[in-house]
UniProtKB/TrEMBL annotation, chain A:
Domain FAD-binding PCMH-type: 1-176
PROSITE patterns: FAD_PCMH
InterPro entries: CO_DH_flav_C, CO_DH_flav_C_dom_sf, Diverse_Substr_Oxidored, FAD-bd_PCMH, FAD-bd_PCMH-like_sf, FAD-bd_PCMH_sub1, FAD-bd_PCMH_sub2, Mopterin_DH_FAD-bd
GO molecular function: FAD binding; oxidoreductase activity
Keyword check for Oxidoreductase: yes
Protein name: Xanthine dehydrogenase family protein subunit M
Domain of life: Bacteria
Any coiled-coil regions, as ranges: none
Key words of the record: FAD, Flavoprotein, Oxidoreductase
From TrEMBL, chain B:
Organism, as annotated: Actinomadura syzygii
Keyword Iron: yes
Pathway note: Alkaloid degradation; nicotine degradation
PROSITE patterns from the UniProt entry: 2FE2S_FER_2
Keyword Oxidoreductase in record: yes
Species lineage: Bacteria, Bacillati, Actinomycetota, Actinomycetes, Streptosporangiales
Keyword annotations of the record: 2Fe-2S, Iron, Iron-sulfur, Metal-binding, Oxidoreductase
Name of this protein: (2Fe-2S)-binding protein
Residues annotated as domain 2Fe-2S ferredoxin-type: 5-81
Pfam families to which the protein is assigned, alphabetical: Fer2, Fer2_2
Molecular function as annotated in GO: 2 iron, 2 sulfur cluster binding; metal ion binding; oxidoreductase activity
From TrEMBL, chain C:
Aldehyde oxidase/xanthine dehydrogenase a/b hammerhead domain mapped to chain residues: 20-135
Taxonomic source organism: Actinomadura syzygii
Designated name of the protein: Xanthine dehydrogenase family protein
Pfam family, one: MoCoBD_1
InterPro entries attached to this UniProt entry: Ald_Oxase/Xan_DH_a/b, Ald_Oxase/Xan_DH_a/b_sf, Ald_Oxase/xanthine_DH-like, AldOxase/xan_DH_MoCoBD1, AldOxase/xan_DH_MoCoBD2, AldOxase/xan_DH_Mopterin-bd_sf
Coiled-coil residue spans: none
Keywords annotated in UniProt: Molybdenum, Oxidoreductase
Length: 287, 165, 803
């Protein structure tokens, strides 16, 4: 299990990285490497070139402001997870990151890398999707902002084009009286989830449910976002929301769990996550 | 002929250099190019944790990193955990006292992980210990004595150094 | 015997090197060696029509590529069938490199040698093999249907039919007041040591000798196999097991194809050559275990006493049978456990499939047998509405019934006679430790909606099988004690336990004892490490060797002290007159005296030269019947195995919504006779239970219909992390074995054996649905719930659930 040979580039700036990517259209970007290197070691991927962005200081950025949290392409999971500033603006990020693999993996893996990898079983794509976040992509042709809904094209397939580098991701802040929760079930602690839910619940001034949205991982080819406001109603009937979700998801079977179980589980987790998010929203409303 | 890169990094406090292809994994670089075979390789896909080393103090999987990426950084391996005079670290002592190892293959990865864990959190709860070592597989011990070792190491670390030490 | 070190939780002597990165495992050796990689079959069953290596020839650093055609003489012969048995009528083994047909994914087809492993893999990728696919036989049902054959000349895919019987089971069941009939199944798992296999060979052309390092559980037998295949005398082949990163059974198989090919190519190329197995290779080319389907008929009386038991087991042994039918033998005998069964019949049909070979993994057939018996006990209890522990108690062999002859033939070809034990006490202690009798109240007090369950299981484990092991002990002139034994170590702490035995037997400080295992240069006669036999076999052999050395030391010292040897004792390495430390001579001096010298190379030697040693001129310098040197060799060869035993119990909680299963408590009471080092024994138990938990809740080999292993990685083969293993509470019982001088029994496999049975029992209790298949995942349990909602026969009788 040794990686195949590749051309190696270690740019110091984003411009240098874009030049390298432009020159090697079938090259891959190497950031944390926690998903890419296993694929290389198993020789399931054999890119002509690797553009190692680990030396680009400007990408090692994390900014939390009123509007949301912007995470640079070199910000590791562990840094974002531990950031009190990020948690204050967008708590769902930290809630989800605690479920990403194991602490040692999070020391190296990056948030943006996980989004670009577009694994539908991973936590962060679901978080970006449910929050309606964006990814900023750069290439030698210029920059563009890709909404989450357009980023995830298929399993392990993003809409990033050859030569494009995801330089940052933006997770918008929460409206007032909004709570979030993240829950998932994995076979072992730290494994990819059999199913997982990122829930966002907003209350109105009378503390009734104004909006409820849930992002799902592990149950669809791309992160699925469902609006549960109608199903749950203003009083937050999460069991009804769960029943609604069970009808809407169409998970696949694999060696760890069958489709029927995953559908069932998605409902259970929806109920739990939404109830927790609503409780959190209520707590915030009382502050 | 595959292109080779001059990789310079600091390992256990000593500057080291070797010329290797870009695809050389940090684990292989340490083991085969530098001869530091204490870092073990159990899966080469980042799951078992045997190859865990400290990169600038943080535990990382050396099988998921290329040596070229590690250039310029400081790496600590199991060979560098003891004091320069060879005195075992509190974590090493605790593992011996509590029988926290059997075949010894996963041990270097655990030692590196736990060393960093206790640096960050000197008094972890049982759940924090479990979370902290949750990315390291051991097939021999059933983990019970490893958990015990971590708590024991925390005790040893909190003891005031004896005079003369 | 001294008491200071034997039986004490002495800290391990091997830990110093392991904790500092100075252990030496296979891949740590041979930095300059060439590397081997293998082209392995991607098909479960196919005919090789062509192998084209031309695409690989221009790979930088390539040294050689070999296929079966290149293997001369015995090198290319089929691998040996290690343990022949009359019931194994159709034993088959593979070739070191596939010849014509491949029969499982991962079977080696070509060997590539290059300057390093990266380059070897580059070349292996470019070897083009053309296959004509043949219909794969996957799973026990397909094998039994035999629509297709794994081997053309093995009808019905049946390798062996093994029958074990005492009395007329069918008649006993028919006559019994109650009878039940049901099917159980258990899936495949594997040893999965964290260090894979590996072989490193150095040929010395000038000396015509070979040194081979292998990550093996048997270095002496690997040597014999290599010597035979390569046409070398044993004396020209040295095999060393270096530090081994776990074995758990898989590394007892030998010679692996790689153990033949790497030394052969090293000699041919006259270059050092090493193969280090990677994780993916280990999943598809080492070995698996466990998979069985068991059809049970049992007849019993109102108290739950078993009057007749008839078990038909179908066992999946994979594509070949290099290790014979040891697992079927062990399953069918150890199934009886601590119980007196009226009449018993077991018929094991061992079947070929196009999957990886099946050879012993810790427990070696016992987990399946115990699963069968303990599930049967639970069935009986449920049927009668009786307490599950009481039903077991009604069937137990009583302490005054030893030796107890079960009337069968065990895996060593000897009668299955239990030597000693106290099973009622084991059960009593386990009940007490887990709080069996108070559990009903505990469950009733738990908050509404929680689903708790309790389960238990007992086992008897034949340990310390023969034929023999040996030990060599030598005290040098510095007073160091060198102990060696031929069997190997994979983390069991042999360097410590054997040193404790030697220190106690000789009367020397523990730190003076140095133990070597698994090195044919030091000890050439051995069998290997398996079946919880190392402590029993080598431990006793070393004790016997020590006794010889001690006797000799006393004879020589008696001469020097002009005393009667019967009045002498050894304390802290000094021989002295009992009760008088002033009349004494240190063992290091005795060592000097034991070896009369002509030449003095240091001061100690000068004391032993002919002009210094004053033996009577009329007698030879080495007394008649004596040999020079303070050393001794001992062998221990038991008449039959010694039987350890234990009882495990667990409390589980299942999530009513997600069907996740959590083990809240796990209790073990075990009896392995006298303990050499309780700390090490407890560690063995913890590790065994963790593997058992893996087998009960997480680990399985997921083959698809085409014979592809879908979870050949640590991402998908779910070995438990620390977060999945419960804290284990232990209790000990010590009934010494009357069969060996030290009174010990094996402990290595104890932890793993009953875990699947115990967890099945507890989950069934928590859920009230019948658990007949293990491992059980949340999805499995969820599916069971749905089925049981429609089918009352799947529900466990209400009212009989508690206890």
């Amino acid at each position: 299990m040794k990686p195949p040979p590749f051309g190696y580039h270690a740019p110091r700036t984003v411009d240098e990285a874009l030049d390298a990517l432009a020159a090697a259209p079938s090259g891959k970007v190497l950031a944390g490497g926690q998903s890419l290197v296993p694929l290389l070691n198993m020789r399931l991927a054999a890119p002509s070139d690797l553009v190692d962005i680990n030396r680009i200081a400007e990408l090692d950025a994390l900014r939390a402001g009123d509007g949301g949290v912007r995470v640079g392409a070199l910000a590791r999971h562990a840094r974002v997870e531990r950031s009190a500033e990020a948690a204050a603006v967008q708590p769902l990020l930290g809630q989800a990151l605690r479920h990403v693999a194991h602490p040692v993996i999070r020391n190296r893996g990056t948030v943006v890398g996980s989004l670009a990898h577009a694994d539908p079983a991973a936590e962060l794509p679901a978080v970006l999707a449910v929050l309606g976040g964006t990814v900023e992509a750069a290439s030698s042709r210029g920059r563009r902002t890709i909404p989450a809904a357009e980023l995830f094209a298929g399993p392990l397939e993003s809409s990033l084009e050859p030569g494009e580098l995801a330089v940052s991701a933006f997770f918008p802040a929460l409206p007032p009286r909004t709570g979030t929760a993240f829950t998932e079930t994995a076979r072992r602690h730290g494994d990819y989830a059999l199913a997982g839910v990122a829930a966002v619940v907003t209350l109105d001034e009378d503390l009734r449910v104004r909006a409820a949205r849930a992002g799902y991982l592990g149950v669809s080819a791309t992160p699925l976002v469902l609006d549960l406001s109608g199903a749950a109603g203003p009083r937050g009937d999460w069991a009804a929301a769960a029943a609604h979700v069970r009808e809407r998801v169409d998970p696949e079977s694999d060696i760890h769990a069958g489709a029927a179980y995953r559908r069932h589980l998605t409902g259970v987790l929806t109920e739990r996550a939404c109830a927790a998010a609503a409780a959190e929203a209520l707590r915030k409303a009382g502050e | 002929m595959e292109e080779r890169f001059e990789v310079e990094l600091t390992v256990n406090g000593t500057p080291r250099t070797a010329s290797v292809p870009a695809r050389r994994l940090l684990s292989d670089f340490l083991r085969h190019d530098l001869g530091l075979t204490g870092t073990h390789v159990g899966c080469e896909h980042g799951v078992c944790g045997c190859c865990t080393v400290l990169l600038d103090g943080d535990p990382v999987r050396s099988c998921l990193m290329f040596a070229v990426t590690a250039a310029g950084h400081e790496v600590t391996t199991v060979e560098g955990l003891a004091a320069p005079d060879g005195t075992p670290s509190p974590v090493q002592r605790a593992f011996r006292e509590c029988h926290g190892l059997q075949c010894g293959f996963c041990t270097p990865g655990f030692l590196c992980t736990v060393t960093a864990l206790l640096r960050e959190n000197p008094r972890p709860s049982r759940d924090q210990v479990l979370e902290g070592i949750s990315g390291n597989l051991c097939r021999c011990t059933g983990y019970q004595n490893i958990v015990k070792s971590v708590h024991r190491a925390a005790d040893l670390l909190s003891e005031p150094a004896e005079p003369g030490e | 015997m001294g008491t200071r070190v034997f039986g004490e939780p002495v800290r391990r002597r091997e830990d110093g090197r392991f904790l500092t990165g100075r252990g030496r495992f296979l891949d740590d050796l041979g930095r300059g060696a060439l590397a081997a990689a293998f082209v392995r079959s991607p098909h479960a069953h196919a005919r090789i029509t062509d192998i084209d290596v031309s695409g690989a020839l221009d790979v930088e650093g390539l040294v050689a590529i070999y296929t079966w055609e290149d293997l001369p003489g015995r090198v290319g012969d089929p691998l040996p069938l290690l343990i022949p048995h009359p019931a194994l009528t159709h034993g088959r083994t593979g070739y070191p490199l596939a010849r014509d047909v491949v029969r499982h994914v991962g079977e080696p087809v070509a060997m590539v040698v290059a300057h390093d492993r990266y380059l070897a893999e580059d070349a292996a990728e470019r070897v083009h093999v053309e296959y004509e696919p043949l219909p794969p036989v996957v799973g026990i049902e397909a094998a039994a249907r035999a629509e297709h054959l794994v081997h053309d000349d093995v009808p019905g895919n049946v390798g062996a039919v093994l029958v074990q019987e005492t009395g007329d089971a069918a008649a006993a069941i028919d006559a019994a007041p109650h009878a039940l009939e049901f099917r159980l199944s258990i899936e495949r798992s594997a040893s999965t040591p964290l260090e894979g296999r590996g072989v490193y060979a150095r040929w010395d052309a000038d000396d015509g000798s070979l040194r081979v390092y292998s990550s093996t559980q048997t270095s002496t037998s690997v040597r014999a196999a290599i010597a035979a295949r390569l046409g070398l005398p044993n004396g020209k082949v040295e095999v060393v097991a270096p530090d081994v990163g776990g074995g758990f059974g898989v590394k007892i198989v030998h010679p692996w194809p790689e153990e033949v090919l790497v030394p052969w190519a090293a000699r041919l190329l006259d270059r050092e050559l090493k193969w280090t197995e990677d994780r993916r290779e280990h999943f598809v080319s080492a070995a698996h275990e466990r998979g069985q389907v068991q059809d049970v008929r049992v007849g019993f009386d109102d108290a739950g006493r078993v009057l007749g038991l008839d078990v038909r087991i179908r066992h999946d042994h994979g594509a070949y049978t290099p290790y014979g039918i040891i697992i079927p033998i062990v399953t069918s005998t150890q199934l009886l456990g601590p119980y007196k069964i009226g009449a018993y019949r077991a018929e094991v049909t061992s079947l070929y499939t196009n999957t990886l070979i099946v050879t012993p993994y810790r427990g070696a057939g016992r987990p399946q047998g115990v699963y069968c018996m303990e599930r049967t006990m639970d069935r009986i209890a449920r049927h009668l509405g009786r307490d599950r522990a009481d039903v077991r108690a009604a069937n137990l062999i009583q302490p005054d019934e030893f030796p107890y002859d079960q009337g069968l033939l065990f895996q060593d070809g000897r009668p299955l006679i239990y030597d000693s034990g106290d099973y009622p006490e084991l059960l009593r202690k386990a009940r007490e430790l887990i709080g069996w009798d108070g559990f009903a109240a505990e469950r009733a007090a738990a908050s509404r909606g929680r689903r708790l369950g309790i389960g238990l299981g007992l086992y008897v484990e034949g340990t310390g099988v023969g034929p023999y092991e040996g030990g060599h002990v030598e005290i040098d002139t510095a007073g160091r004690v060198h102990v060696s034994t031929g069997l190997t170590s994979q983390g069991q702490g042999h360097e410590t336990a054997f040193a404790q035995i030697a220190a106690a037997e000789l009367g020397v400080p523990l730190e003076d004892v140095h133990v070597t295992t698994g090195d044919t240069r030091r000890f050439g006669y051995a069998v290997g490490t398996f079946a919880s036999r190392a402590a029993v076999m080598s431990g006793n052999a070393i004790a016997l060797a020590c006794r010889k050395v001690r006797e000799k030391a006393l004879r020589i010292a008696a001469d020097a002290l002009e005393a009667d040897p019967r009045d002498l004792d050894v304390t802290d390495g000094v021989v002295h007159v009992r009760g008088d430390m002033s009349a004494s001579v240190p063992l290091r001096t005795v060592a000097v005296l034991s070896n009369p010298l002509r030449y003095a190379f240091d001061e100690e030697a000068a004391a032993a030269t002919q002009f210094a040693v004053g033996r009577p001129a009329t007698e030879p310098p080495v007394a008649s019947g004596e040999e020079p040197g303070l050393e001794g060799r001992g062998y221990y060869s038991p008449v039959r195995s010694t039987f350890a035993s234990g009882a495990h119990a667990a409390i589980v909680e299942v999530d009513p919504d997600t069907a996740e299963i959590a083990i809240l408590r796990y209790a073990v009471v075990h009896d392995c006779g006298r303990l050499i080092n309780p700390m090490v024994v407890e560690g063995q138990i913890h590790g065994g239970v963790a593997q058992g938990v893996g087998g009960a809740l997480y680990e399985r080999m997921a083959y698809d219909e085409s014979g592809q292993l879908l979870n050949a990685s640590f991402m998908d083969f779910l070995m438990p992390y620390a977060t999945e293993v419960p804290r284990i509470e232990t209790g000990h019982l010590e009934t010494p074995s009357p069969l060996n001088p030290l009174g010990i029994k094996g402990a290595g496999e104890a932890g793993v054996i009953p875990v699947s049975a115990v967890i099945a029992s507890a989950v069934e209790d928590a859920e009230g649905v019948r658990v007949d298949a293990m491992p059980i995942s949340p999805d499995d349990l969820h599916t069971l719930r749905l089925r049981a909602a429609d089918d009352p026969s799947l529900r466990v009788r209400e009212g009989a659930r508690t206890g």
